Amino acid sequence: MADKLKTYRRKRDFSRTPEPKGGRGSDGPPMFVIQKHGARALHYDLRLEIGGVLVSWAVPKGPSTDPRVKRLAVRTEDHPMDYADFEGVIPEGEYGGGAMIVWDTGNYANAGELDLPAAVKKGHLKIALNGEKIKGGYSLLRTGAPSRASGRGGDKEHWLLVKMRDEYADARRNPVNSQPESVKSGRTLEQLARGKK
Ligand code: MN
């Protein structure tokens, strides 16, 4: 597990960032978190507990509740379990500098045929989320092998996040816009960035 977090630790200076170093384990059903992150470009970090770490994707537009909408999800480095609670401000100039809130969290279930690590490897996950804002089935599909194209993020896998058709599918609901606040503190990203308690 320490090995899985090598990239996470390499990217960060823990004497400067308030983010956790990692180490906590977990029991019970797997959990997920979606963090809203006001980095250079605003995005939502979807993280799924798989194999003792949080397997992570950056979703620029956040999850949709409309099954017709495909959302780009760029795979990022695995994060430690402790990260699921992280809400705070990463200093300017550090990796991922900007404010971050816990936008949604809960447990989830594997709704696919393969076990979760095998499904990640294969590039197709089917999951049923049970968050406060986001519920029901989602599919995550890798759209190609990571390219080694030059430039920032050129080696990152691109996936698509799509709502599955079930009773939670709703083309009109848009929790990304209508429920912007943290499920942990009730604060918005802007309030946290301004230091409001
Ligand atoms: Mn992020």
Spans where pLDDT lies below 50 across 5 or more residues: none
Largest sheet: spatial strand order: 1-2-3-4-9-8-7-6
Mean pLDDT: 92
Taken in chain order, the helices and strands follow as HEEEEEEHEEEHH
Span from first to last CA?
35 Å
The biggest sheet amounts to: 8 strands, antiparallel, barrel
Rg calculated over all Cα atoms:
16 Å
Which distinct ligands sit in these coordinates?
Answer: manganese (II) ion
Structure in words:
This protein has 197 residues and is mainly beta. Helices cover 11% and strands 37% of the residues. It is built from four helices and nine strands; from the N terminus they run αββββββαβββαα. Strands 1-2-3-4-9-8-7-6 form an eight-stranded antiparallel beta barrel. β1 and β2 form a beta hairpin. The protein starts with 5 loop residues before the first helix and ends with a helix. The mean pLDDT is 92. The site of manganese (II) ion (MN) has 6 residues, from β2.
